[in-house]
Amino acid sequence: MDTLLITLRVALSLGVVLALMWVLHRASKKRFAGKTSGRRAATVEVVGRQGLGGKASVVVVDVEGERLVLGVSEQGVSLLTSGQAPAPELTIVTGPVQLPVRPAPSADAFGQELALQADAPTSLPSDRTEATAQPLPMRPRNRRPQRTTVPTAQQLQGSILSVDTWRQAAAALRNRRAG
């Protein structure tokens, strides 16, 4: 009997909490729908990103007509340089556009090509007629080319595959046991 009462109380409490969360969600959705925080939202476009190793990278970002070069690491984000973003290259067309046109083949050239195709053999050569034919070499199917490049120590720096990472972990364990 006690188990049934406790189960009903837990279920009722959970239902009240879920109902309260749903009501708050609906209220906040209505209140903040379409509103910004008093200023217009900045358009941010990531132009490019280049990893430098570990968890550090350089990011080029355009924000409202200004180009920023940011350094991103575990410690934070720092501004390396900034400047005016290049304007997009637009071409304004004010008149009719003349597209390049390939000259049509002449009727004589077309007739010659048609005759060549009509005279071409339509079947595969048989073994009896082609005694000198060599069989084609077989290659294995569904084989991807093997990766031949080996990552350098600098590229592996900070990853689980790095030898230095394992050495640091072993040294930390030794220090913990000693102390």
Report the total helices. 4
Rg, alpha carbons: 35 Å
Write out the strand line-up for the largest beta sheet, numbering strands in chain order.
Answer: 1-2-3-4
Largest sheet: 4 strands, antiparallel
Mean pLDDT: 80
* Low-confidence parts: none
Q: What is the approximate shape?
A: extended
What structural class do helix, strand and pairing data support? Answer: alpha+beta
Order of helices and strands: HEEEEHHH
% residues in beta strands = 15-25%
Helix content: 25-40%
In total, the number of strands is 4
Q: Distance between termini?
A: 54 Å
Give the topology.
Layout: H1 2-31, E1 44-53, E2 56-63, E3 66-72, E4 77-84, H2 107-119, H3 153-156, H4 163-178
Antiparallel strand pairs: 1-2, 2-3, 3-4
